[in-house]
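PROTEIN DESIGN WORKSHEET
SECTION A - STRUCTURE
LENGTH: 272
TOKENS:
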């Protein structure tokens, strides 16, 4: 390897490490600020920290202002075919199967956490558009995934992102006083890892469409909240575990079908 290539590899590696570190630092700071002053702008800032971290690294570390424009192009790739929209909406089916399995195994409905009101549901659906799905995917899939899979392959990159994606939520849980259990944290991370593999498959087969990645993420948030918080059909822990097992099986099938290196029949997306 030439000196130029070594230097490039080092900077790319440093950029990824700085990105991951920034996501935690910024997320912790935003969550702390919101726990002190619980206003809407700060609440919206918390889930946007992966996107903000990606932009900071592109501009200040890699010195690639054009990379920011390329990053946002992922949100313009919506002409991908109906089957990919159906795949991105698969959490609706998976959550339904999880609820059925839960009750077949003797699970008891815990009851709703919030009232079933149309305006509440509409407000939550709109809020989710501007938080988790939109606020994170420029960072996880747009910035980190192309760089990691160019070095480690699609499957390993997906697992790395999935693990960090799950861990990244911890400051918010702790600082924003969310009641969680060890069982939920474990199954939640199982879900982020298996979901990450599925999202890589979506991303790589749709020419890097962040629309599909965001739609999948959005669907997970909406249908899980609907099943647990609104309808009260299943507990968070049970849903997270069963969903994780289902997507583990789906991910294994995708690896067998498409291969661990790319999870796609198309060339992997280049980094911005």
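SECTION B - SEQUENCE
RESIDUE ASSIGNMENT:
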């Amino acid at each position: 390897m030439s000196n130029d290539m070594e230097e490039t590899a080092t900077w790319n590696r440093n950029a990824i490490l700085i990105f991951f570190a920034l996501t935690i630092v910024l997320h912790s700071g935003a969550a702390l600020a919101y726990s002190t002053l619980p206003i809407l702008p700060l609440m919206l800032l918390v889930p946007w920290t992966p996107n903000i971290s990606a932009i900071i690294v592109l501009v200040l570390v890699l010195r690639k202002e054009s990379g920011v424009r390329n990053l946002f192009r992922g949100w313009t790739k919506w002409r991908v075919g109906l089957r990919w929209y159906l795949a991105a909406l698969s959490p609706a089916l998976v959550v339904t199967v999880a609820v059925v399995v839960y009750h077949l195994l003797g699970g008891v409905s815990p009851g709703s956490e919030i009232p079933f009101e149309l305006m509440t549901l509409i407000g939550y659906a709109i809020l989710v558009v501007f938080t988790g799905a939109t606020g994170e995917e420029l960072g996880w899939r747009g910035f980190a995934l192309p760089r990691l899979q160019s070095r480690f392959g699609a499957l390993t990159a997906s697992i790395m992102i999935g693990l960090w994606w799950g861990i990244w939520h911890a400051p918010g849980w702790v600082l924003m006083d969310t009641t969680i259990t060890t069982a939920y944290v474990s199954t939640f991370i199982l879900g982020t890892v298996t979901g990450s593999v599925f999202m890589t498959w979506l991303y790589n087969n749709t020419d890097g469409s962040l629309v599909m990645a965001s739609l999948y993420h959005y669907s997970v948030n909406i249908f899980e909240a609907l099943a647990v918080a609104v309808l009260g059909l299943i507990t968070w822990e049970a849903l997270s575990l069963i969903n994780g097992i289902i997507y583990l099986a789906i991910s294994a099938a995708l690896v067998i079908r498409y291969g661990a290196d790319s999870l796609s029949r198309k060339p992997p997306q280049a980094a911005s």
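SECTION C - NOTES
The chain has a mean pLDDT of 88.
Residues 76 and 211 are 7 Å apart (CA to CA).
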